[in-house]
Every structure is written in C-alpha cells, then in structure tokens.
Design brief:
mainly beta, Agglutinin, subunit A, 3 domains, four-stranded antiparallel sheet, 46% strand, elongated
Length: 285
C-alpha cells in the first residue's frame, strides 16, 4: 500500500509522472492516482482509479484503448467498450447502448488519449477515424462517470469535453434512452439515434416528442396544466411526470415492472422496455 504522506519517496508499486499534478502507480489488480490539490498545504487527494471489479475508470493522457478493452464507471452501471468493429460504445449495465462514437470500421485499431488533449480513434496506420476535437484544450484524462457521462478533464479536474452538457444534451448528439433512476427537468431532452426526433420536458409542463427538422410536435402527454416540473424513469419501472412538489401528474402505469428504461426510436416512437430482455411494456404508438 502506498500513501500520500510518503511522497516523494518511491514506493514498490513504481511511481510514474503523468503530468505535473498527477502521480499514478499500479498495485496488483488495483490502479491508484494521487491528485495534487495544493502542495503548499499538503492537500493530496488519493482516489481509486479502478472499480471493485478492477476495471479502469480513467484513461490518462498518453494511454490508449485497444479493441476488446473497456473503461467503467465506479458504480459499475456504465461501461465504455472499444469494440472489435471499431465502434466506441457506452453501455448501461452491459446491455443497453446509450452512446456511441459511430466509428464502426474494421480498420479501427486504437483509441488514444493524446498529450495535446484530443481523444482519437486511429487505424493501425495512424489514420484518424474519429475524435473529440479537444486538441490544445488542456485535457489530461478521460473518465466514465456514475451518471453515464463521459468526460475529458483538465489538470484542475474541470471538464473540457463531455457527452452531456449542463442541460442534458450531448455535445455530439443526444442519449437515446433515459435509464432507471434518471430524470429530465424542463429543457432537458433525449434524442433518437438518427437525431431526427427529440423527447423534451417542455417549459409548459408536458413531455413532448418533436421532429428535429421543423420542431413539430408528434406526441405529447397533453397535460391541461403547466405545473409539470420533471419526468422520472423510476427504479420501479414507472415513467412519471411530477409537479415541483413531487405530486404525480401523468405516468405510464408500469410500476412493479422494473427495472425498465425509456427509449426514443428513429421513427419518433417512445417505448418503455424491460431491462436485459428489451420487452416493450408501453409505447407512445
């Protein structure tokens, strides 16, 4: 075991400098980082860089993923898999895809967190296939968070790129599902994989599916009042619109059927499905 207070003396796991603020080492199946917060007050914060299944949570600059490798969230709910087909896919509980780089190519060879802050998928000949366009951003590491976001962080742990911004919209597209335990507040959305449709918790208190090309509503909860505050995909399987005081205003009546998730399809249909078996329990059509 290596502790922060023995720094800067070497430890038997082997220290290596990743950048001026981070020191990492490997110890058996566990990988740890020490993040320097303020050397003047000796505030060093250790954190575990693998989850309990010894799956890496962090891809540091200079490191890469090869086909068949993965990163995980600390709670184990999300895994970022670099698939054999060259696609980088984020899965919820190893079953439901919630984000992808759409870089399917047999030529994809590695996903590299570059020293310049850019995260790039390359062929074996080093031809770029996909990237986050974060070069010169100061990004130092890529992480998978417990809420399903993927972020590139700088040396101060501030995000320079994320798959989900403050309002819940992906910078490179929307999540196609809302997983159990997640909510959308007014203005937040999920999107169909082809980006042709969006489901939004609107400011008028309704959950609405709109066509992206002309913003035309094709489905709505049609609530006659405007106090709907947020919509929740509950752990019990029910999809519910709540007022600000947590009073339910509309639901799919699918409680006791969980764990479920809601998905927006390429044709604009909303479907509520049972996790793992993808059985449709409710549909907007």
């Amino acid at each position: 075991w290596c502790k922060a207070w023995i720094f800067p003396y070497p430890c038997h796991f082997g220290w290596r400098t990743v950048d001026k603020d981070i020191v990492s080492f490997d110890g058996g199946e566990s990988r740890f980082n020490l993040i320097h917060a303020d050397i003047l007050n000796r505030s060093w914060e250790p954190y575990l860089a693998t989850n309990e299944n010894a799956c890496n949570l962090v891809l540091e600059k200079g490191e890469e993923m090869r086909a068949g490798s993965r990163l995980c969230s600390q709670n184990g709910d999300y895994t970022l898999d670099f698939q054999e087909d060259g696609n980088l896919v984020l899965y919820y509980r190893a079953v439901t895809p919630v984000w992808a780089s759409s870089s399917t190519s047999q030529a994809a060879y590695r996903a590299f967190m570059q020293p310049d802050g850019n995260f790039v998928i390359y062929t074996k000949e080093d031809r770029p296939l996909w990237d986050t366009s974060t070069y010169s951003s100061g990004g130092t590491r890529l992480v998978v968070l417990n809420d399903g976001r993927i972020q590139i962080l700088n040396e101060n742990n501030d995000p320079v790129w994320t798959t989900q911004n403050h309002w819940g919209t992906l910078e490179s597209g929307c999540l196609p599902i809302l997983a159990g335990g997640r909510t959308l507040t007014r203005g937040q959305s999920i999107c169909s994989p082809n980006k042709a449709f969006a489901m939004t918790m609107e400011s008028d208190g309704n959950v609405v599916v709109t066509r992206s090309s002309d913003r035309q509503r094709i489905w709505s909860t049609l609530l006659p009042w405007s106090d709907g505050d947020h919509v929740a995909m509950q752990e019990d399987g029910n999809f519910v619109v709540y007022a600000a005081g947590e009073s339910p205003r509309w639901s799919t009546d699918t409680y006791r059927d969980g764990p479920n998730y809601i998905e927006l399809l390429d044709d604009g249909a909303l479907q509520l499905k049972r996790l793992f078996v993808a059985k449709v329990l409710w549909s907007s059509r």
